[in-house]
Write a structure and sequence with these properties.
Number of helices of chain B: 8
Strand order of the largest sheet of chain A: 14-18-15-17-16-21
Shape of chain B: elongated
Helix content of chain B: 10-25%
CATH topology of one domain in chain B: Ubiquitin-like (UB roll)
Largest interface: A-B, 148 and 113 residues
Strand content of chain A: 15-25%
Number of strands of chain A: 21
Distance between the termini of chain B: 53 Å
Largest sheet of chain A: 6 strands, mixed, barrel
CATH superfamily of the largest domain in chain A: Dimethylsulfoxide Reductase, domain 2
CATH topology of the largest domain in chain A: Dimethylsulfoxide Reductase, domain 2
Structural class of chain A: alpha/beta
CATH class of the largest domain in chain A: Alpha Beta
Distance between the termini of chain A: 43 Å
Largest sheet of chain B: 5 strands, mixed
Number of domains of chain A: 3
Radius of gyration of chain A: 24 Å
Structural class of chain B: alpha+beta
Strand order of the largest sheet of chain B: 2-1-5-3-4
Helix content of chain A: 25-40%
Shape of chain A: globular
CATH architecture of one domain in chain B: Roll
CATH architecture of the largest domain in chain A: 3-Layer(aba) Sandwich
Oligomer: heterodimer
Bound molecules: iron/sulfur cluster, FE2/S2 (inorganic) cluster
């Protein structure tokens, strides 16, 4: 989460999920919360329905949360920076900002202010399609209702300018004084159950556990000593850099429980790349699309057969316990890794608790956590000592980086905008009933019955224009590929926009998506690209 | 603060109800409409007690504790009222425990058992209502509904999906979905919250006939949901080492990220763990095909493959994709493998994707 780390000094969700009940006003942008994080969506709806919190939803699609919103801003796909900066422009113009807070806790104000001049309501209306009056009403509601919380998800990060989007969110929360207070915060909702933990554990090319940089000599020395091995101080490659380098500078890949052949942008390209490797090993519980390409496939175990910790989106480290004894010739994932290490002469711990002890030794934010303490209720890091209660919200009194940084942001349009042949805006995402690449949920009897195949959401106006009826078979094409799927005609999408869920390998949305990356965070632009549509037949 | 219940001194905290304090101390007071997640509803009168210095019977689910309170849960008047409550409910519905999924976990059954009601003292002739089996995940049996209102409150105010409501009036009152349509055609999102709170067998999980298992037969283990980042705490119910169903973990629910609820994925999407195509043995590629292999053979090949790249092209020619779906311990171990064993920082996962 590069945008958060540069501006605040920490990349995690700042506040707790339950604090949504303490917010007086809530802004949701780029998160279809009731589909992607449904249980938190319920809590958010409780805040609105039972506690009287005000709700502003910013989304190009008419997501279900809109029914609970006081204000819905339907910005164009990819115009989030303009929208957020536009709100800030009005807040400062009207004097609704938290002046004292800005003075005491932020830096970069003058430059930021200069950049903000560009975002006049008229300009923002032109870029986002949101009327100046609506923008004014939202700015007023957000800045004058009391403590405000902001939630976002992949709708903010999956853009070629995703880092700017995040910074724009941080700016808004800084000028309104909503960071470091209960019920406020900049809160990225994590899409998978242990994204937070994978980051915390140094599953990133630039940091060891607890975000200790690999370029910091002291950190390198500490880990090198603990692991009794020389370490590289060179930042590694990201996943989205490794794939195209396959067969070139990357010769061997070890893939644990990931399915890039459905989740990566521009799939045809990914398959070609992986095929060029000298050696590919995949460790998973299913023979996924990716595993089918492997030289060796190692069967691990499912979550239900595991002991260990998982860190949720609000930094809560929770213990998960084995409910089922594994059957067949499978091994615990940590055992497999230890078995490989052993073949290089390295002895790894062979119980989850012993591994956790190493994590605690090396990671100050986890030092105070023990299995015993979190057996029933998880604890939120930072938790530096065994008598520390954990941390409900970050940045109280002081930011991790000292003063928070207000970012001057320039507007950049999405890398690909609709034109001539490709006159629709395609965005991708999840639906309620399925998850990620579908390797789990599509093997669930009930979820598969509920939604058994992919579809494309299409506005009734566009359906008429293309001569498509609900349920028809259609082909969706972009400059990268073509899929066939079923049309779902609905006014949930705006005219001129289509939406394809990405869970379905046989009509994989990521055959279509653009692999252009955000220059800093290296996240691909899943949320916007140009597409065309054509009817190929009637439905079943 | 302290109060005395049936001659026993128990501790309580201000703001607690008599019911909550008694339950925390392990004293049984039946409660059919109250549920911790939906709060007091004051509909069933199953929970009545006598409190010294107060006139008449008091609802334990509504009465707040006061220091020095003296409570009796076992007097004749209390027992008579409980018996009447059970009698009426049994008479009005069709409670055939023999074939009910809730047998053994039903709170009405428990109450009848404890009081010793064997059959209702009277019968009210009613037309049997049809089962609602239209939903893919839930079966509704109106004849077993005791109109406690838990499901309505939970759907309206806890998960806020706003599907269930009381429809009709008087003796025809019933729980309805939306504007009284079959559940499968309603706006229900199958979060299963209503099943979780229903005290009886009026809302149960749909189970295929060949795989029927009552909740009373299962063992529950607390696990973390494998899907989104909320990290819902789930009670995974198993029987004979097989997954049966999932319920939200309700222990200390106010302190859990999911507050005792789940969504359709966590509730109904976990059966993938038993999918017939789960990998059960290592595979290695031979003559272009993936074939079964022993662990030693597979692991040796992995070590050789990584070593070859490392030796020939340097440590940075090896890459690792770790996973947002495995534990911290496993992520840590793979990181150590990449950094300390191979010597590269080429490790990443799909946070970006
Ligand atoms: S399953 Fe959930 S949404 Fe459906 S009726 Fe029950 S509580 Fe409401
Ligand atoms: S269906 Fe169950 S929870 Fe709902 S009112 Fe009837 S008995 Fe109570
Ligand atoms: S039950 Fe639903 S909301 Fe909860 S963690 Fe699982 S997927 Fe997320
Ligand atoms: S539980 Fe107290 S009135 Fe129903």
């Amino acid at each position: 989460m590069a945008g958060l780390a540069t501006t605040l000094g920490s990349g995690a969700m700042t506040n707790s999920l339950e604090e949504v009940l303490e917010a007086k006003v809530i802004l949701v942008i780029g998160s279809n919360t009731t589909w992607n994080h449904p249980v938190f969506g319920s809590l958010l709806k409780q805040a609105v329905k039972l506690r009287g919190a005000k709700l502003i939803v910013c989304d190009p699609r008419r997501i279900d949360l809109v029914d609970f919103a006081d204000i819905w801003l339907q910005q164009r796909n990819g115009s989030d920076v303009a929208l957020l900066m536009g709100l800030q422009h009005i807040i400062l113009r009207e004097g609704w900002e938290a002046a004292q807070y800005i003075k005491e806790r932020t830096e970069g104000y003058d430059e930021y202010l200069k950049a903000l001049e560009f975002y006049t309501p008229a300009k923002v209306a032109e870029l986002t399609g949101v009327a100046p009056d609506d923008l004014l009403a939202a700015a007023k509601l957000f800045a004058t209702s009391g403590v405000g919380a902001l939630y976002y998800c992949m709708g903010i990060t999956q853009h070629s300018h995703g880092v700017d989007n995040v910074k724009a969110c941080v700016n808004l929360q800084l000028i309104t004084g909503n960071l470091g207070v209960a019920g406020g915060g900049v809160n990225p909702l994590r899409g998978q159950n242990n994204v937070q933990g994978a980051c915390d554990m140094g599953g990133l090319p630039n940091v060891f556990t607890g975000y200790q940089p690999v370029t910091n000599p002291a950190a390198v020395e500490k880990f090198s000593k603990y692991w009794r091995a020389p370490l590289s101080d060179k930042v590694g490659l990201t996943l989205t850099q490794m794939v195209p380098a396959a067969g070139d500078s990357i010769r061997a890949l070890y893939i644990l429980g990931e399915n890039p052949l459905v989740s990566d942008p521009n799939l045809h390209h990914v398959e070609e790349c992986l095929a060029k490797l000298d050696f590919l090993v995949v460790q998973d519980i299913f023979l996924t699309e990716t595993a089918k390409l492997a030289d060796v496939v190692l069967p691990g175990v499912s979550f239900a057969e595991k002991l260990g910790t998982i860190s949720n989106t609000e930094r809560r480290v929770q213990l998960t316990q084995p409910a089922i004894k594994p059957t067949g010739s499978v091994r615990q994932d940590y055992e497999i890794i230890a078995d490989v290490a052993a073949r290089f002469g390295h002895e790894f711990p062979r119980t989850p608790e012993a591994l956790f002890q190493e994590i605690r030794d090396l990671t100050p934010a986890y030092a105070g956590l023990t299995y015993e303490r979190i057996r029933e209720v998880g604890i939120q890091w930072p938790c530096p000592a065994v008598d520390h209660p954990g941390t409900r919200f970050l940045h109280s009194g002081k930011f991790a980086r000292g003063l928070a940084l207000l970012s001057p942001l320039a507007y950049r349009p999405p890398a690909e905008v609709p034109d001539g042949d490709f006159d629709l805006v395609l965005s991708t995402g999840r639906i309620l009933e399925h998850f990620h690449t579908g390797s789990m949920t599509r093997r669930s009897r009930l979820l598969d019955v509920l939604v058994e195949a992919g579809h494309v959401e299409l506005h009734p106006d566009d359906a008429t224009r293309y001569g498509v009826a609900d349920g028809d078979r259609v082909a969706v094409s972009t400059r990268r590929g073509r899929i066939e799927t079923t049309a779902l005609v609905t006014d949930r999408v705006a005219p001129g926009s289509i939406f394809v869920p990405f869970h379905f390998a046989e009509a994989a949305a990521n055959v279509l998506t653009n692999d252009v990356l955000d220059p800093v965070a290296k996240i691909p632009e899943y949320k916007v690209c140009a597409a065309s549509l054509e009817r190929v037949g009637s439905g079943r | 603060m302290q109060l005395t219940v049936d001659g026993r001194k128990i501790d309580a905290v201000a703001g607690q109800t008599v019911l909550e304090a008694a339950r925390a101390a392990g004293i049984y007071i039946p409660a059919l409409c109250y549920h911790p997640k939906t709060g007091k509803a004051g509909r069933c009168r199953a929970c009545v007690v006598e409190i010294e210095g107060m006139r008449g019977l008091k609802e334990a689910c509504a009465q707040e504790v006061r220091d020095g309170m003296v409570v009796h849960t076992d007097t004749d008047r209390v027992q008579q009222t409980r018996r009447l409550v059970v009698d009426l409910l049994l008479a009005e519905g069709h409670h055939n425990c023999i074939s009910c999924q809730a047998n053994g976990t039903c709170e009405l059954q428990e109450m009848a058992y404890r009081i010793g009601v064997e059959r209702p003292a009277f019968l009210i002739e009613t037309e049997p209502a049809p089962l609602d089996v239209s939903s893919e995940g839930i079966v509704r049996e109106a004849d077993k509904c005791i109109q406690c209102g838990r499901c309505v409150l939970a759907c309206q105010n806890h998960v806020v999906n706003e599907v269930l409501a009381f429809g009709y009036r008087g003796s025809h009152a019933a729980v309805v979905c939306d504007d009284d349509r079959p559940m499968g055609e309603s706006s229900c999102v199958l979060c299963g919250e209503c099943v979780q709170v229903c005290p009886v067998g009026a809302l149960v999980l749909k189970q295929p006939r060949e795989a029927k298992v009552r909740p009373s037969e299962t063992v529950a283990t607390k696990v973390t949901c494998p899907f989104c980042g909320v990290g819902c705490q789930i009670d995974l119910h198993t029987k004979d080492n097989r997954y049966v169903f999932a319920m939200a973990h309700e222990g200390q629910w106010l302190k859990q990220p999911n507050r005792g609820s789940l969504c359709v994925k966590g509730r109904f999407g976990l059966d993938f763990i038993d999918a017939p195509d789960r990998l059960r043995t290592p595979l290695v590629r031979k003559d272009g095909e993936l074939v079964e292999a022993s662990w030693d053979e597979a692991l040796d090949l992995v070590a050789a493959g990584l070593k070859q790249a490392k030796d020939k092209y340097g440590p940075d020619s090896v890459g690792f994709f770790t996973s947002a779906k495995v534990t911290n311990e496993e992520n840590y171990a793979l990181g150590r493998l990449a950094r300390a064993v191979i010597g590269t920082n080429n490790i990443d996962h799909c946070a970006r994707l």
